[in-house]
Amino acid sequence: MMKDLPLWDGTPYPDFVRTLPEIDIPVEGVRGWLLQGANQQVVFFDLPKGLAIPEHSHGEQWGMVIAGKIDLTIGGETKTYGPGDYYHIPAGTPHSALFLERSAAMDYFADADRYVPKK
Prior knowledge:
Layout: H1 15-18, E1 31-36, E2 41-47, E3 52-56, E4 61-67, E5 70-74, E6 77-81, E7 86-89, E8 95-99, E9 103-109
Antiparallel strand pairs: 1-2, 2-9, 3-8, 4-7, 4-9, 5-6, 5-8
């Protein structure tokens, strides 16, 4: 759970992560900090309890839960992930998520333009 990790401004991410550009995401309560590469990106997410992300697909994604608990459905198979668990979503595979607790996750996207910084 988040309370077991050191918190900075309500997140488990220290200043050097929170000084990265925040992503522009139209989902209430979600924050993300973007580490941009030439052909990929990493996003450090802070996600509220109860958030449901509907089924969608995009390029390849790999992620790890830092804190919280997530029900993640990948290609029709649902599993529950907690701190230290990681997942892989192949390119084009439909997936959805339900955040059972406030969660922190780090996701690597093989797409360089999956998210854009806030302006």
